[in-house]
């Protein structure tokens, strides 16, 4: 599991460690880790000796990290040149080490023929986009042919929220020290970080609970439901699907398809008879029940909303009956328009995209997209339910606070009609199989993203391709 902490928490942990170390020892640890990653990048492109490295050096500790790392590369034969943001406020010890090792200062033309650019302009204390000379250097780095390696985080992104408020560095890789920062896991900032590598510098005073978490493959594999020899189809879980309508039958079919591939023993469909007949033709193993959820057979969880129209009495009735069942449930798409006066709880998983979240909160969509972390927390708290905010980085939050989960497998290939219907069915099945809502939503998003990555290898994908790829995603993890 990747765990990310807010800036003030990391600063307190750093202060605690520095109080127990000799002066400068912490920076030396960080610089050594940075130099090791930089050397590995250079080896992959031809070697360290003789390689041209440009440092973008700010006035804070990030600049010192870059200078000491540059000194280490220079001692191994790299040609290192440092471009200083402010010559009067440079880290004196770092600059002296660089010069002693054979490096030198230079102007921004050093970027033109560099093979590697190390961005040490602005650290975790920065707010807002880059300005002035820093913005100029960020644009020059973007225009250069060199790979860009960021120190702790790309300069100009917001470490706590993942916001990008203006010009910032776009890195190919980021070396982050001690702990992940939320902005490295959450778009739009995460898009600028590239491959993120954590260097352990010995922080031990971090809080017990992180601000943001990201499940990794081993975490997901450990949560996947696995049938035992003593089980049967009912003990594995039965999920009810109250999705689809006469106008949108495909949404019901896709939600059922996602549920069938979610590890449960059976799927019951409750909805219009015409849709049920279409589902049976595709999947004869589905149990087609009464048109209203309250009259359907026993289930352990519900999926509701995909393909439900707005301002429709039947759709509102289906949604209300699902919520009134007090069972774990996923409310998606159309069901999100019928939440007024319903008694939600954290056993309910809401799956809005940014536009739907904005409508529920009474704000503009652009506000949600710019600050996804705060808004997913706010929506979960306001509605008292678990919220999965869909997007390039899907985020999951519980109403009681705690760590927000960030899904690491998202891909633009999932931005296709019906993709969310498959996700809703998959999460509902995981709920029925016994996963708690936060885990069901997190595992469902991870598996959904992984299936999208597998499917896109064969070209552009449609939602139905996700259904074909989900068994492969399970196999790869197990």
From TrEMBL:
Cofactor note: Binds 1 potassium ion per subunit.
Name of the protein: Bifunctional NAD(P)H-hydrate repair enzyme
Subunit comment: Homotetramer.
Organism: Actinocrinis puniceicyclus
InterPro entries the record matches: Carbohydrate_kinase_pred_CS (IPR017953), CARKD (IPR000631), Nnr (IPR030677), Ribokinase-like (IPR029056), YjeF_N_dom (IPR004443), YjeF_N_dom_sf (IPR036652)
EC code(s) of this entry: 4.2.1.136, 5.1.99.6
Domain named YjeF C-terminal: residues: 216-477
PROSITE patterns cross-referenced by the UniProt entry: YJEF_C_2 (PS01050), YJEF_C_3 (PS51383), YJEF_N (PS51385)
SUPFAM superfamilies cross-referenced by the UniProt entry: Ribokinase-like, YjeF N-terminal domain-like
Binding-site list for (6S)-NADPHX: 61-65, 123-129, 152, 251, 307, 353, 421
UniProt binding sites for K(+): 62, 119, 155
Family membership: Belongs to the NnrD/CARKD family. In the C-terminal section; belongs to the NnrD/CARKD family.
The protein's required cofactors: K(+); Mg(2+)
Domain YjeF N-terminal: 10-209
Record-level GO BP terms: metabolite repair; nicotinamide nucleotide metabolic process
Binding site for AMP: 390-394, 420
Lineage: Bacteria, Bacillati, Actinomycetota, Actinomycetes, Catenulisporales
Catalytic reactions on record: (6S)-NADHX + ADP = AMP + phosphate + NADH + H(+); (6S)-NADPHX + ADP = AMP + phosphate + NADPH + H(+); (6R)-NADPHX = (6S)-NADPHX; (6R)-NADHX = (6S)-NADHX
Gene3D superfamilies found in the cross-reference section: 3.40.1190.20, YjeF N-terminal domain
GO molecular function: ADP-dependent NAD(P)H-hydrate dehydratase activity; ATP binding; metal ion binding; NAD(P)HX epimerase activity
Biological role stated in the UniProt entry: Catalyzes the dehydration of the S-form of NAD(P)HX at the expense of ADP, which is converted to AMP. Together with NAD(P)HX epimerase, which catalyzes the epimerization of the S- and R-forms, the enzyme allows the repair of both epimers of NAD(P)HX, a damaged form of NAD(P)H that is a result of enzymatic or heat-dependent hydration. Catalyzes the epimerization of the S- and R-forms of NAD(P)HX, a damaged form of NAD(P)H that is a result of enzymatic or heat-dependent hydration. This is a prerequisite for the S-specific NAD(P)H-hydrate dehydratase to allow the repair of both epimers of NAD(P)HX.
């Amino acid at each position: 599991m990747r765990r990310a902490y807010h800036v003030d928490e990391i600063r307190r942990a750093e202060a605690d460690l520095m109080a127990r170390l000799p002066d400068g020892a912490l920076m030396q640890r960080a610089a050594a880790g940075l130099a090791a990653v930089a050397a590995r990048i250079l080896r992959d492109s031809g070697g360290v000796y003789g390689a041209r490295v440009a440092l973008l050096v700010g006035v804070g500790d990030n600049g010192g990290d870059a200078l000491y790392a540059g000194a280490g590369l220079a001692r191994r034969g790299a040609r290192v040149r440092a471009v200083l943001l402010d010559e009067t406020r440079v880290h004196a010890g770092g600059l002296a080490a660089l010069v002693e090792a054979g490096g030198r200062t230079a102007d921004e033309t050093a970027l033109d023929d560099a093979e590697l650019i190390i961005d040490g302009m602005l650290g975790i204390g920065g707010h807002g986009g880059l300005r002035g000379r820093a913005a100029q250097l960020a644009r020059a780095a973007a225009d250069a042919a060199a790979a860009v390696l960021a120190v702790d985080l790309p300069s100009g992104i917001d470490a706590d929220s993942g916001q990008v408020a203006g010009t910032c560095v776009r890195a190919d890789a980021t070396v982050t020290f001690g702990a992940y920062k939320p902005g490295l896991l959450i778009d739009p900032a995460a898009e600028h970080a590239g491959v993120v590598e954590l260097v352990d510098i010995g922080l031990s005073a971090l809080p017990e609970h992180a601000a943001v978490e990201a499940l990794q493959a081993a975490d997901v594999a450990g949560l996947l439901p696995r049938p035992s020899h003593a089980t049967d189809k009912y003990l594995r879980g039965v999920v009810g699907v109250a999705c689809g309508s006469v106008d949108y039958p495909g949404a019901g079919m896709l939600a059922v398809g996602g549920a069938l591939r979610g590890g449960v023993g059976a799927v019951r469909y409750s909805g219009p008879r015409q849709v049920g007949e279409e589902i049976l033709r595709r999947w004869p193993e589905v149990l087609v029940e009464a048109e209203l959820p309250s009259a359907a057979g026993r289930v352990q969880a519900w999926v509701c909303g995909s393909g439900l129209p707005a301002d429709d009495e039947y759709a509102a009735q289906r949604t209300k009956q699902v919520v009134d069942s007090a069972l774990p449930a996923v409310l998606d798409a159309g069901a999100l328009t019928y939440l007024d006066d319903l008694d939600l709880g954290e056993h309910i998983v809401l799956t809005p995209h940014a536009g739907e979240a904005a409508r529920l909160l009474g704000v503009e969509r652009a506000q949600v997209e710019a600050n996804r972390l705060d808004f997913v927390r706010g929506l979960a708290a306001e509605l008292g339910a678990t919220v999965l905010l869909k997007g390039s980085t899907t985020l999951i939050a519980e109403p009681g606070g705690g760590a927000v989960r960030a899904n690491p497998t998202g891909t633009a290939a999932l931005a296709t009609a019906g993709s969310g219907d498959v996700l809703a069915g998959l999460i509902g099945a995981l709920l029925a199989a016994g996963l708690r809502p936060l885990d069901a939503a997190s595992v469902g998003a991870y598996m959904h993203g992984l299936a999208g990555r597998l499917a896109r290898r064969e070209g552009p994908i449609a939602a139905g391709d996700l259904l074909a790829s989900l068994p492969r995603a399970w196999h790869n993890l197990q």
